[in-house]
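Lecture notes, unit on binding sites. The following record was shown on slide 14. It pairs a sequence with 5'-O-[(L-methionyl)-sulphamoyl]adenosine.
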Amino acid sequence: MDKKYYITTPIYYINDIPHIGHAYTTIAADIMARYKRLGGYRVFFLTGTDEHGQKVEKAAALSGIHPREHADSMVDRFTGLWEVLNISNTGFIRTTEERHRKVVQHIFQKVREKGDIYLGEYEDWYCVPCEGYYTELQLKDGLCPDCLRKPEKLKEESYFFRMSKYTRPLLDLLETHRDFIMPEIRYNEVASFVKGGLRDLSVSRTSFSWGINVPNHDQHIVYVWFDALTNYLTGIGFLEDEEHFNAFWPCDAHLIGKDILRFHAVYWPSFLMSYGLEPPKHVFAHGWWTIEGQKMSKSLGNVVDPHDVVKVYGVDEFRFFLFREVPFGLDGDFSQHAIVHRINGDLANDFGNLTSRSVTMIGKFLKGRIETPEKKGGMDDHVEDTVMKLIAEYQREMDVFGFHKALHSVFEIISVLNRYIDSEAPWKLAKDEDPRVKTVMYNLWNSIRIVAVLFYPFMPQKSQLIWKALGIGKPMEGMDLEEEMRFYTPSDIAAIDKIAPIFPRIEQQV
Ligand code: MSP
């Protein structure tokens, strides 16, 4: 059977300049997408931009242009960054696209016909920057509980979604699908919120006009989150390409930050259940990055632009750092010191030296060729067994977004290999003309080739360079994973010689 995998990032507000937080979710999705492709899955990887709402309307008005023009001028910031970061998305959606308007109106209409959307009156507090609605009780000293700015009081005719009706179905979903929300701490948060009972949700506005009109009631604009969440359907061809849509829905994983968990874990499955579509299989909420120990904010002027980071440290180094430094799901701190430490320690010393020493030895002792072992001893058998065991651990972790532990397994392989070189001292074997030198080189070549494959989702460009250094010319994409995950004697590789360092040390005082 054709294996398929559908993964998404949130769609980003176009008003923001993309920063490390946006890059984090998108790189995580890219890692998973690449990993699944290696495993033979047909992957659909969707990202995009969230372009409606009062904030966009206001920003455009300030510049004296139409909101659409404003959106058009901002979207390249995102697509441009994804190119720089080597993001392999297969779809990109803008909520201002016509195909999306059709889907949102269709869903709204059907849910209304079913009686799950009704007209009522809405009185609440609205925070413009957060696009969030709060009851009197949720405010903190009269201020928005999220950003502590003054919210606006709203009283208007509004459509409501009967979310209260979905309290029980959602609890059932949570009970029967323990891994619907990941990691567990987020699952518990959602479960206790839903247990408290859900209240109906206002899903239309009349106070601004930049958005999608409610069908047959033009004064109303569909609530931005109803509009935004629906992108996950539009993006894979809902209403346009039934076959494609049915192949990929339900979504395998929505990756999001912890701040937008409720929208994805409560609102979204309720909308879907009401319409009659299956909820997504998993919603994974990751933590937040602080910068040098401080919350990232425009006012502090410490917003990290990923372009700046990759200019100094490199794209793959940045991608690697984000997932090596902090367990995926927890909060983390980004600092110059930490990234330099990771690059120099893990990449330049532990892995880079291992690779260049091995390549040099293969060139010098075996004239750049790898041959089948004839004689074994010392740690020889242990190496292959350990690599196989750690590959299995890596795969187990990758399958559940355990990127951090997966990388840990790769570094265990690296440390075994470093110990192996020290204990077997291949230069002595070569000097004594002991044929076991071939065995050691065979083991090193195979293990490093495998490490490059395991690193590939995180560092696609560097991994390819490692293969090249090992004499392998073929592209890593489209490799036969099963074949590559075992030890073999290569028949068609280029002669192996010296290489320039793949991970140069960063000589920088921090
Ligand atoms: N437009 C909505 C999402 C709609 S999805 C149907 C939105 N956009 S956003 O641009 O504000 O944020 C997108 C993502 O960036 C969120 O997942 C959020 O968690 C993430 N991050 C923003 N700042 C962050 C950090 N400092 N650290 C990590 N991720 C952070 O919300």
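Take-home: The first helix runs from residue 20 to 38.
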